[in-house]
């Protein structure tokens, strides 16, 4: 290589007039300074070395070499199909996050459970006549139970001794006082009597007070059933509204609401029929 060419190459990395000073890191400065000492003041060419900004040298846009001068790094070639792959990934994510449609068959079964429970409770309510099921809805607070209650049929077996008397056979003698308290606290107007592990309950004939208490219990059971139905409707409605398609969302919302309303009408019908039965006694 000619001396003049080496001088110009050295000038590109930050040499100034005369014996220029390298504006490069220390690890580069030793090699370049040795080369410059051999070259002299640019071989007497009289040219002025171009100035290169250190900020430009170390900005990452220009790669420098002690002797060969600055070189620009090659741009990376974009991979073909990367945009399509990213779009495909986005589509997969959208599909994974898509809210499924409401299963109306499963919803109908969930709505039927509270209604079935209400009908069983109504069947057990017989004013003026002793039936074992009339005590099924009572809750018993067991001793040492921490305030928790359990249904009476789980701690005792109820039998009809006659049309006006029940026999409650308690499984554990320690639970007899709790069973008696639950029967006395009910709105059935009953007066239990304990004999060992057996509790005898006389069922009075239908009086005005007994019918009023029974009607009140019927209405309370209906309201409890409606609350349970609302608890089934709310998550289904939330799922319906979360669908990405507005048309599908509206259709599902209407279907969920219609199923709920139809079940509520059955509850109202069962309540009215039971109240009418109680009043006619």
Descriptive account of the structure:
The chain has 281 residues and is α+β, with helices and mostly antiparallel strands. It folds into three domains: 3-57, no CATH class; 104-114 and 207-279, Orthogonal Bundle (Topoisomerase I, Chain A, domain 4); 129-202, Gyrase A, domain 2. It has helices spanning 3-11, 26-39, 54-57, 82-97, 104-124, 176-185, 208-241, 246-279, and strands spanning 139-141, 149-151, 156-162, 165-170, 191-195, 198-202. A four-stranded antiparallel β-sheet has the order 3-4-6-5, with helices on one face. It has a two-stranded antiparallel sheet with strand order 1-2. A hairpin with a 2-residue loop joins strand 5 and strand 6 (198-202). The longest helix is centred in the last third of the chain and has 34 residues, at 208-241. The chain is elongated and about 110 Å long. Mean pLDDT is 74; it is low at 13-24, 26-46 and 52-69.
Question: What is this structure, in a nutshell?
Answer:
The protein has 281 residues and is an alpha+beta fold. Helix content is 51%, strand content 10%.
Layout of secondary structure:
Elements: H1 3-11, H2 26-39, H3 54-57, H4 82-97, H5 104-124, E1 139-141, E2 149-151, E3 156-162, E4 165-170, H6 176-185, E5 191-195, E6 198-202, H7 208-241, H8 246-279
Antiparallel strand pairs: 1-2, 3-4, 4-6, 5-6
Helix pairs in contact: 1-2, 5-7, 5-8, 7-8
């Amino acid at each position: 290589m000619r001396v003049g060419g080496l001088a110009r190459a050295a000038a590109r990395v930050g040499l100034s007039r005369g014996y220029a000073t390298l504006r490069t890191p220390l690890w580069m400065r030793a090699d370049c300074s040795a080369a410059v000492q051999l070259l002299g003041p640019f071989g007497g060419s009289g040219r002025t070395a171009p100035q290169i900004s250190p900020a430009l040298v170390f900005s990452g846009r220009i790669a420098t070499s002690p002797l060969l001068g600055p070189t620009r790094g090659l741009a990376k070639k974009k991979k073909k199909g990367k945009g399509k792959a990213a779009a495909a990934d986005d589509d997969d994510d959208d599909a994974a996050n898509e809210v499924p449609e409401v299963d109306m068959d499963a919803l109908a079964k969930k709505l039927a459970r509270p209604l079935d429970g209400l009908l069983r409770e109504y069947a057990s309510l017989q004013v003026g006549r002793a039936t074992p099921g009339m005590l099924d809805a009572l809750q018993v607070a067991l001793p040492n139970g921490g305030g928790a209650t359990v249904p009476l049929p789980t701690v005792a077996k109820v039998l009809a001794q006659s049309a006006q008397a029940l026999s409650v056979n308690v499984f554990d003698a320690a639970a007899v006082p709790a069973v008696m308290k639950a029967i006395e606290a009910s709105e059935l107007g009953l007066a239990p009597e304990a004999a060992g592990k057996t509790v005898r309950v006389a069922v009075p004939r239908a009086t005005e007070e007994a019918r009023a208490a029974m009607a009140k219990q019927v209405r309370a059971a209906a309201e409890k059933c409606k609350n349970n139905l609302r608890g089934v409707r709310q998550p289904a409605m939330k799922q319906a509204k979360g669908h990405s398609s507005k048309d599908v969302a509206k259709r599902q919302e209407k279907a969920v609401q219609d199923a709920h309303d139809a079940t509520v009408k059955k509850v109202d019908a069962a309540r009215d029929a039971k109240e009418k039965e109680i009043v006619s006694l």
